[in-house]
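Internal ticket - ligand job 433, zinc ion:
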Amino acid sequence: MEKTVFTDVYILDGTGRMPFVGEVALKGNRIEAVGEGRISVSRSGATLVDGTGAYLMPGLVESHVHLGLDNSNDIIALGALPPEEHTLLAMRNAKLYLDHGFTSCISAGAVKPRLDIVIRNAINAGHIPGPRLLASTPWLTVTGGLVDMNLLHMKREAIAIVLDGPDAYRRTVRELIREGVDVVKLVVSGDTGIPYADSRHTVMTEAEVAAAAEETLSRERRFNVHARSAESVKRAVRHGASIVYHATFADDEALDLLETHRDRLFVSPNIGYTAALVTATGADLPDRAQQHAIFQGELEASRRSLKALRKRGIRLLGGGDYGFEATPHGGNARDIEHFVTLFGFTPMEAILTMTRNGGEAMGTDIPLGQIKKGYLADLLLVDGNPLEDVRLLQDPAHLIAIMKDGKFHKAPSVAAKTTTKDRTKPFAQKKSA
Ligand SMILES: [Zn+2]
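stdout (structure tokens):
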């Protein structure tokens, strides 16, 4: 089994502990040992990576990815894109996420029914590079809900699947689980700026949510919910959702419910998209002043909601809705900066949303998201202290190495790496080898 030892690194282990100088040993795809100073572990046949001055941290987890988006806002054109081209697009994006240090992604909506499934399978088979991926259904939404792009005179589903009534949800959830999704995405509330389904509207009925939840949970899959209104948060939690996206207008009753179930669920506020539109200067906003006011309002609501969620100890996740014009794919680590600058989180708390908490949300059999014995070896070697400047994580140039499942996606340069098969060779001489 392949062995790697990172020596003389600052270890930012993703547990909340401040960085310490030490070593991390890997065996195969797992972390074998972690410790301060020199750890006692066999170095025979191991690849030694001298990380002097660099920070070793867990790979990042994006909690709300759409690999099939194309950095435009034209989701109608995207719906018309044939599956062949669309698969290639998602494949390029999968590599891009890994290039940016995202070793895990939870999909929050495939842009075609089998798109996530085939990309996940190809990644797992080692055919294409990409993060660990939880494959999702497309957005399952009601007539007149978010991403229902139909016109009255023609059927045009674009990127969502539009369903009405519990039986329709049962059938489609059964079908898509048969095809191989890991997670089901339900659009239970409306969204910001949609006149016929606003953020405070709860558009999917209790019976529809219940039917989808029953079909999902009975097959030991998970469902995640777009939930901005207070009632949509409650419906999500009552029926057993794993991730509640947004929770923008959660009231006290919704917050109480979230807190009661905080050991089994997560909230992903998806602040990146909102923040980008508030600060955007782009031509993608046809009525800039009006849009700015709308998203400023959403940001203020998120601020209130996040303050309450944080106080109640609810596990928060980073990321969300990158892949539009204002939020191109790859910039997702900006969410860490937003948590700090817009919401007053410490850099450590903000980083934990995309490491420890994200790892827990992945729900893998072997845990990930922290540098701990037994955990999966998904690691980043960073050429600076992310706690001092969280923006380092936004630029792949600062990532000296990216490792997923014990294998380098981006290996450190030769100068930083030495291999020894000589167990008698003194440790101090490793650099001269
Ligand atoms: Zn989304």
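Auto-summary: The chain has two domains: 3-58+367-432, 60-332. The first strand starts at residue 3 and ends at 11.
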